[in-house]
Automatic annotation (TrEMBL):
Family recorded in the similarity comment: Belongs to the Fmt family.
Taxonomic lineage: Bacteria, Bacillati, Bacillota, Bacilli, Bacillales
This enzyme's EC code(s): 2.1.2.9
Alphabetically ordered keywords of this record: Protein biosynthesis, Transferase
Domain Formyl transferase N-terminal, chain residue ranges per copy: 1-179
Source organism of this protein record: Paenibacillus sacheonensis
InterPro entries: Fmt, Formyl_trans_C, Formyl_transf_N, Formyl_transf_N_sf, Formyl_transferase-like_C_sf, GART_AS, Met-tRNA-FMT_C, Met-tRNA-FMT_N
Residue ranges occupied by any Formyl transferase C-terminal domain in the UniProt entry: 204-300
Gene3D superfamilies named among the record's database cross-references: 3.40.50.12230
Record protein name field: Methionyl-tRNA formyltransferase
PROSITE patterns per the UniProt record, alphabetical: GART
Binding residues for (6S)-5,6,7,8-tetrahydrofolate: 109-112
Length: 314
């Protein structure tokens, strides 16, 4: 098949490689523009662009696909199929209508749950015990199209967004490779989504990283796992952001207010939550690098009774 591939992050690279490995002709790769990254705001190409250029594929990076020269270019190419994977924009109808075999998307959730841009992080943060990849036909709505194929994976208590991204990246590429032959042959029997069961996974914001100590330890633990290793959760200490990258649940009850430090030890910092407590093991004080909590405690003035939270007063 003659294919236009559209994707942006590392999650999409394996799917691009799966299309090429299956022998299809990728005539154009469309990805997001280069963005500033890091403290120095260095202009950095998305992983899909880097992968495409290494393979000698033409790349276009419209800021907005609708009405762009890239959209016109796709219409000129008249591909058999458009394949998208975490592209980052909703395709306009003018593009959806171009390929004779339609447009398909590799989505990192079990649709109709977690439609949107952050399904992997949101599934962990939502306390889910399973997730997966859905390959679907694209429609004008947000991840609303009919489902073609599904692969399911468990979410373990040790998973973070980082480990789950790796698992779903591999699963998505494998499922795509298995699905393409039926699309090419025209034998797909797609299943409509049950829109009444739909949930959404919007892109993460700074507020999603803020820890509310009134929540149960389990919910905060899931929040931190879902944010790692990309952003991490944060609280306040002495009025400054204090990031938490790693923690474990401690089954204990205390009369202290949520956010109160219950104990400090060589293992880390035990903090009261709305239900049970959390042992903070990997932290990042303001202006410092991430470090084991035990290392920070060697020089920090932190004692039981101190409080994390709004203002972080001891």
């Amino acid at each position: 098949m003659r294919i236009v591939f559209m994707g942006t992050p590392a999650f999409a690279v394996a799917s691009l490689e799966a299309v090429l490995a299956a022998g299809h002709a990728v005539e154009l790769v469309v990805t997001q523009p280069d963005r500033p990254k890091g403290r120095k705001k260095t202009l950095t190409p998305p992983p899909v662009k880097e992968a495409a250029l290494l393979r000698g594929l033409p790349v276009e990076q419209p800021e907005r696909l609708r009405g762009s020269e890239t959209a016109a270019r796709i219409a000129e190419l008249k591909p058999d199929l458009i394949v998208t994977a975490a592209y980052g924009q909703i395709l306009p109808k003018a593009v959806l209508d171009v390929p004779r075999l339609g447009c398909i998307n590799v989505h990192g959730s079990l649709l109709p749950k977690y439609r949107g841009g952050a399904p992997i992080q949101r599934a962990i943060m939502g306390g889910e015990t399973k997730t997966g990849v859905t390959i679907m036909y694209m429609a004008e709505g947000l991840d609303t199209g009919d489902m073609i194929s599904v692969a399911e994976l468990p979410i373990t208590d040790k998973d973070t967004s980082g480990t789950l991204f790796e698992k779903l990246t591999e699963t998505g590429a494998k499922l795509l490779a298995e699905t393409l032959p039926s699309i090419e042959a025209g034998t797909v029997q797609a299943i409509p989504q049950n829109h009444d069961e739909a949930t959404y996974a919007p892109n993460l914001t700074r507020d999603d990283e803020r820890i509310d100590w009134n929540r149960p330890a389990r919910a905060i633990y899931d929040q931190v796992r879902g944010l790692s290793p990309m952003a991490g959760g944060f609280t306040l200490w002495n009025g400054e952001p204090f990031k938490i990258w790693g923690c474990t649940i401690e089954k204990r009850s205390a009369s202290a207010a949520p956010g109160t430090v219950l104990a400090v030890s060589g293992e880390g910092i035990v903090v009261q939550t709305g239900e049970d407590a959390l042992l903070l093991t990997l932290i990042q004080p303001s202006g410092k690098k991430a470090m084991p909590a035990a290392d920070w405690l060697l020089g920090a003035r932190l004692a039981p009774g101190s409080v994390f939270g709004s203002g972080g007063e001891a």
